[in-house]
Amino acid sequence: MKKIFLPILFLTLVFLIISYVIIERQKNLFQYYKPDNKYVLFECTNNDICGGWADRLKGLLSTYAISIVTNRQFLIKMTKDCDLKNILIPNKILWDYNQVSNSTSNIILNYGWNFAIQDQLRSSPVILKEFTNESLIIIKAGIMFADVLSENPNYKIQLNQLGYNQSAFKIPFQIRKWYGELFRLNENLQIKYSDLLKKMKPTNNSKLICAQLRMGDPGHVGQSDEDMGIKFWTFINNTFLQSSNNYSIFVTSDRENFKKEAELFFVNNKVFYTDNSSVHVESKSSKCDNLEKVIFDFHLMQNCDIGVISQSGYGILGHWNRPEPFKDLYVYTKEDQTQLKMNYWNRKNLTFLKYNKFGDIFFP
Fold it and tell me: Is the pLDDT of residue 32 over 80?
């Protein structure tokens, strides 16, 4: 009898454990689901000017902040040239836009790059009050428009109740938490990511320097100097590699030649990069493969121990998405940030400044 009873008991226990794990995973996935049929959706479709991945993330994460304070289910519809859900899939937030039908009543708020919306959100007693009865609020934006809620006195108590320190209710301090709640790589990309990360940081003592170089679009007024690559490599070599060789170097850039250049320069260090990841995702030639590579590089930057980056939203957001967003972070920018505010696209005569805290570097 015992011979039969023990295997049955064992199998029963295994079944109960597996069932518990599945139930907890489902609870975790849907912990933020709000079944009251009120939604706020971030939208970027083929008919929209969305900007690059950084601009899209600014608007997306700001819209997520709005969903938190309005208690609406957050959705994403980013289908321009490629549906985002082919690359990133929901993690803890069920954000798939297919949850709502095309016939759902909605209002579209096209904030774009209109910073004037910040004045309204900074002081409004109840944000989006006029749209309270709308089932679906659709937001299009390429800026961090919701960070000003950290200054709105009407939201201090609510944000505290939600577990937030109001002054830290800003993308720089929340991006790692929110990005992790929203996204995980699809299965194939996750395998690729894990394999590459093991090579980049093979031991617990391994350190990773990330270099993000943005030249700018060809012919654009903000295009940087052609010799910026050698300036980056020299700075990295003189600042970090003289005292230690225990560094790998990851390079991401909007120019492929910088990646090869780094490989030739750092002969004593392993250099990693993603081939053909330099296409701007707003360009006409952008395809799903391009967006995938850009997001993959962005995902990798959360592992950087040291960041040396251009004055670029892509690089800055990528490095904020770390456990300590401002740790060992250097920006190739104007020494006089007041001068930069006056002419943001003057990208000549730049130097490397340490980005110690929010506000050190002008970042609109």
Answer: no
Q: Assess if residue 49 is contained within a domain.
A: yes
**In this model, does residue 113 exceed pLDDT 90?**
yes
Residues 180 and 194 occupy one common structural domain: no
Q: Based on the domain organization, do 104 and 240 belong to the same domain?
A: no
Q: Can you give the pTM of this predicted structure?
A: 0.88
3-state secondary structure the chain: CHHHHHHHHHHHHHHHHHHHHHHHHHHHHCCCCCCCCCEEEEEECCCCCCCCHHHHHHHHHHHHHHHHHHCCEEEEEECCCCCHHHCEEECCCCCEHHHCCCCCCEEEEEEECCCCHHHHHHHCCCCCHHHCCCCEEEEEECCCCCHHHHHCHHHHHHHHHCCCCHHHCCHHHHHHHHHHHHEEECHHHHHHHHHHHHHHCCCCCCEEEEEEECCCCCCCCCCCCCCHHHHHHHHHHHHHHCCCCCEEEEEEECCHHHHHHHHHHCCCCCEECCCCCCCCCCCCCCCHHHHHHHHHHHHHHHHCCEEEEECCHHHHHHHHCCCCCCCCEEEEECCCHHHHHHCCCCCCCCEEEECCCCCCCCCC
Q: Are residues 229 and 139 in the same domain?
A: no
Q: Tens digits of per-residue pLDDT, 235-257?
A: 999 999 987 778 999 999 999 99
